[in-house]
Design goal:
- It is built from 18 helices and four strands.
- With about 475 residues, the protein is mostly helical.
- It folds into two domains: about 220 residues, Growth Hormone, Chain: A; about 240 residues, Growth Hormone, Chain: A (Up-down Bundle).
- The strands form two sheets. The protein has a two-stranded antiparallel sheet with strand order 1-2. It has a two-stranded antiparallel sheet with strand order 3-4.
- Strand 3 and strand 4 form a beta hairpin.
- The protein is globular.
């Protein structure tokens, strides 16, 4: 019975993140080749905008009105319908898509998808606890399948193609090196079709295969105010200077979170515009190369308990900040062929430290430094500052910088990518140096037990990924 439940939750997590991985890192290639390269940042920024309010709304509904596993299915079905509509619009208007139409459909889709990341965790925790299992030990292997799903979807869209009734998988343009059109999913609107299909699959799976998660039953004395339900009571933490500084730096670091998701594949693919790099493996398989970041993320989760115990929270946060410096810097000086491609690979590998170390250690810091009565709201505030305000502002600013130094010529975004990435690297370096001199963590946060850190690596997945 226990194995059956774990298997179903693993499938749920696999599909949850495969949906995201089907388009998150490669939609920029499709938009750029259809004249919307200057709007790429908006498609990533809107994810942060909807993350500010939609998870709270869906969370209230899951607490009070609709069982979480059913609501998970409803959200995925609606997200799939809107993403499928975006695919149909793009497929029926090749080379002539209008920003307003496809952006509106995309926005509606992600508005219902983004809350499902936290909702999937709620479903998993509820089912595990109701069946007498330990979330600390039983959830991490289940959650890792989510990263596997994200990677699997990226690999699929990297080489799968459908063209003129033919289909297959290739790591180069199946139409030949002289063809201006590459039908592989990473360059076409078909990535949105895959997203919609996977969404329908998870919706059906949620309705049919997941055990029931009863609604919470709270007494009148336990009823929350509107401010508490939306996590607004956590804003009183800004009255404490130490916590205010922490949340401000969370926002500043959150600026970096989505930049490479939005621009890594257009950047790597841009080398195809140069004859000497046009047939290089890296330039033709940007999505596959970028998937190394997710593999690194999965591996780095295993390092967090040791690093937190050995170095303390502040130093682990600093590791993450300097990892962002290297992440962007290696992009700036790397290239698609040997030996410079090693720098691109190094950038992918270091992403796990950059992303995981701050999100998990930051969540643990919030856990230790806030009153138990507002910890859930405080974690929501942490996510709001990083994945909401920080990531949204970061993508809008990054879009302006990229558009200043680079521009689309046909399918490829060419220009001064080196300066662009080094600007991002310099920003991350400034944030890290300021953090060293301004942020002071109390002595009780200088080290944490393995049990605490393992709890966060297993249960703190409100902070995503892929």
């Amino acid at each position: 019975m226990a194995n059956s439940i774990k298997s179903r939750l693993a499938i749920m997590n696999f599909l949850e993140f495969a949906i995201w991985g089907s388009y998150l890192t490669c939609i920029g290639n499709y938009l750029g080749s259809n004249g919307l390269g200057s709007r790429i940042s908006l498609f990533y920024a809107i994810q942060g905008v909807v993350s500010i309010f939609m998870p709270a709304i869906i969370g209230i509904i899951a607490d009070k009105f609709i069982q979480p596993q059913k609501l998970l299915g409803i959200c995925h079905l609606l997200a799939a319908i809107f993403m499928g509509s975006a695919w149909y619009y793009g497929a029926s208007h090749p080379g002539a898509i209008e920003f307003a139409t496809i952006f509106s459909l995309y926005t509606l889709s992600v508005a219902f998808f983004m809350p499902t990341i936290a909702l999937a965790n709620t479903v998993a925790f509820s089912i595990l606890k109701r069946n007498g299992m330990d979330t600390i030990t039983d959830f991490p292997p289940i959650r890792v399948l989510g990263t596997v799903g994200f990677i699997a979807a990226m690999w699929f869209v990297n080489g799968f193609y459908i063209y003129d009734g033919e289909w297959g998988y290739m790591l180069s343009n199946p139409l030949g090196e002289n063809s201006a059109f590459d039908p592989r999913f990473q360059y076409t609107v078909n990535q949105l079709a895959l997203c919609a299909i996977l969404g329908v699959c998870l919706a059906v799976f949620s309705f049919v295969c997941l055990p029931a998660c009863p609604l919470s039953k709270t007494s009148g004395s336990q009823k929350k105010s509107v401010a508490e339900m939306f996590g607004l009571d956590a804003f009183k933490l800004f009255k404490t200077p130490r916590m205010a500084i922490f949340f401000i730096f969370s926002m500043l670091l959150g600026v970096s979170l989505q930049i490479t998701n939005g621009y890594a594949t257009p950047f790597i693919t841009s080398f195809k515009a140069l004859p000497e790099f046009a047939e290089s493996f890296a330039a033709n398989n940007a999505t596959l190369l970028t998937s190394l970041s997710q593999i690194s993320e999965a591996c780095c989760i295993l390092l967090i308990p040791f690093c937190l115990r050995r170095f303390g929270i502040k130093n682990v946060m600093l590791m993450a900040m300097f990892a962002w410096v290297l992440r962007f810097g290696f992009f700036g000086i790397g290239g698609p062929t040997m030996p410079s491609v090693i720098l691109l690979i190094a950038s992918m590998i270091i992403y796990g430290v950059a992303f995981d170390f701050f999100n998990v250690s930051g969540a643990l810091y919030v856990e230790q430094e806030t009153d138990p009565g507002i910890q859930a709201s405080a974690q929501g505030l942490f996510m709001l500052m990083t994945n909401g305000i920080g990531a949204t502002g970061g993508m809008l600013a990054a879009g302006a910088i990229v558009n200043h130094f680079c521009h689309y010529e046909g399918e490829y975004m060419i220009g001064d990518w080196t300066t662009t990435w080094l600007i991002f690297s310099a920003y991350a370096l400034i944030v890290a140096l300021l953090f060293i001199f301004i942020f002071r963590s109390p002595s009780k946060s200088s080290s944490v037990s393995i049990a605490e850190s393992e709890n966060l690596t297993g249960g703190g997945d409100g902070f995503v990924e892929d």
